[in-house]
Predict the structure.
Amino acid sequence: MVFRRGIAQNSGILKTILLITVLFGSSMISCSIRQEPEKVWNLRDKVKALTLDLVGLPYRIGGQEITGFDCSGFVYYVFSSFGIEIPRTARKQGKMKNSIRLGKARTGDIMVFKLKNGWHSGIYIGNSHFVHAPNQASPVRNERLTEFWLSRLKRIIQVIDQ
């Protein structure tokens, strides 16, 4: 009798433990927190993200800070933010090595244009768009490579090797 009573008590305890394990375990499964895996950002992605974050900031002659940019100051600021040293002026940016054809342009490449009043630069962000600080009348903006810009495009400089 004692033996049977011990088995019955142990059986009840085992059932309780099993029930708690099933309930607790299943609630842990259904309540688990899922997180998106961290995106792997390469340098080109980072340059594009910063470039787009600066859209809307004001134009300022000689500017190379977030208080205001001129065209080459904008390009200079973006690349220097990642420890990449490039010349400060659009003309000198256009003389950099690693010039490529438009068909080879990738996000993060520097686009240099020859306008009637001087040199101009911006950053290619893909899909026939570039970001630049056009003039005193306009803030930093994302613009399509229209025929106007394509006819004045002199060089595309690949600064990022990847």
In short: DSSP finds five helices and eight strands in the chain. The first strand starts at residue 64 and ends at 65. The chain has a mean pLDDT of 86. Strands lie at 64-65, 68-69, 99-100, 110-115, 118-126, 129-132, 141-144, 153-157.
